[in-house]
Design goal:
9 helices; homodimer; 7 strands; 43% helix; globular; alpha/beta
Chain lengths: 300, 300
């Protein structure tokens, strides 16, 4: 991956996130098919940080991707976690780099759940889609899980379900209130500022709310248009580079942290490290003092 | 917190996790009320890693906790994240320590979502409850999001809803298949082994599936019984200490990682660090080489 790195940076990476049951996988399929019509090569990376046993054991969503296989212009890779997320985030990032270097113009990274994984993936991609579905609990719950502040595009999928209009309205109201807007991980502020002077027009991205019925292929045209418009916005506003810098900063930090633990393991013998763990577990020493002693031992 | 640490280690910490809409907060309230009847002091820490703006801005679930306020034996604290989860996990862990040292015998830690946050919180608590609700999507979705492998007790809340029996059956089937069972973060294996020799009886914990209707207070007695039985199991099997060691190991690692980044910031000037970020973002250098140079500069 190190040698490949200089060939990366051309792909448009798109994170797709949302709660289970929102139909993310079907949506990702339909987006991929639509983008393929423009002769662009599409990579799909499906990340499941919540489950260590989905990697092939349970067929799940990927079954629905059958109609994409056989197309050389589409590459699909599932990533399941066995252990720490840090490792998963890094290996996902490596797969994205490999696809990027291999000439895939668009890379879709799909994640399940609502939590830190999404925030990390949003920091690692150019465009973040947050998928909601009507009837997934009351509005406040939707909002809580909505991780709105990381969305570049909001998607209400299964929009033929009852309650869809209310979900769309609730999301639009929140955007109007300026909620989908905080500066995040050093990313360019996405605050909805309707009163911005014209000269800054290119710098303002008004988060659209797209309604889709992925299973029938409905609304996908408009959604893919919004994705390409966001790409255009990133280029014109200079935010593409801002996001590349944020992604790079985060990746360097992660590599420094895991690299440091590896180095420490080489410096301090295992028996010694385990003794410290026991001392903390049995309250003979507090963790802060323990860590400060380990730093001293490592000469850092 | 450092000075308090030697007074901690007495509280039974209980993580409560599950998707939005499962009724976790109401359930946590009811558990707290039931435990209070036994004259035990209860701390509640509600953690929301998915949303930086819930800390008081949106009332949300906490509104439902009103009937608990006014009781000196219950302490409630909401934690919302602004920034990295690492920080949130550490501050949650600190609040738990303070409550522990202050003499709260039972501490409930509630988190939303399905992802790394849950795994981290499960590593930081003695007993993990995973809450499901019927009708949250199809069974496979439930399973994917179920993060079964971290559960000590499964709860099907809103069990008066249609589809409840199927959800309970699906969960029991999965437990029978040995799915709620992998060794996780060095925790004692929870594999359901029905053929275990009798001498190991104390070491086997058969994950129960509890049915509740939290809003009506139904099924809470049995659930609280299961919680106390799990505590008993942890003590008798020696797993209490195993989990304390796992928690300590994780906390030491996290403190080492964040501590190292702080030290690096003191050693390498900001302008220099930002230049490395630009070099990586603009593909002049790959992140692995960049990090290895930073280690050299820091003399590690």
């Amino acid at each position: 991956v190190s040698a490949l790195y200089s060939y990366t940076g051309r792909a448009h990476t798109i994170g797709v996130t949302g709660s289970p049951g929102t139909g993310k996988s079907t949506l990702v399929n339909e987006i991929a098919k639509k983008i393929r019509e423009q002769q662009l090569r599409v990579g799909i990376v499906a990340v499941d940080p919540s489950s260590p046993f989905t990697g092939g054991a349970l067929l799940g969503d990927r079954v629905r991707m059958r109609d994409l296989s056989g197309d050389d212009g589409i590459f699909i890779r599932s990533m399941a976690s066995r252990g720490r997320l840090g490792g998963l985030a890094q290996s996902t990032s490596d797969v994205v780099k490999i696809l990027d270097a291999a000439g895939y113009e668009v890379i879709l990274v799909e994640t399940v759940g609502a939590g830190q994984a999404e925030v990390d993936i949003s920091s690692a991609t150019h465009t973040t889609l947050v998928v909601e579905a009507p009837g997934m609990g009351d509005e406040i719950q939707t909002i809580k899980a909505g991780i709105l502040e990381i969305a570049d595009i909001l998607v209400v999928n299964k929009s033929d379900r009852p309650g869809s209009k209310q979900t769309v309205q609730a999301l639009k109201m929140m955007l109007h209130m300026g909620m989908g807007s905080v500066v995040h991980h050093g990313r360019f502020s996405k605050r909805q500022e309707n009163n911005k002077p014209d000269s800054d027009y290119d710098k303002v991205w008004l988060i659209p709310v797209c309604e889709t019925i992925a299973i029938d292929g409905k609304g996908i045209d408009q959604l893919v248009d919004a994705i390409f418009e966001h790409n255009d916005h990133l280029q014109k506003s200079g935010e593409w580079l801002t996001r590349e810098r944020a992604r790079s900063r985060l990746e360097i930090q992660e590599l420094l942290k895991t690299g440091f633990l590896d180095k420490l393991q080489a410096i301090i013998p295992e028996a010694e490290r385990e003794r410290v763990v026991s001392d903390v577990a049995e309250r003979r020493i507090d963790p802060y003092t323990a860590v400060s002693r380990l730093f001293d031992q490592a000469g850092v």
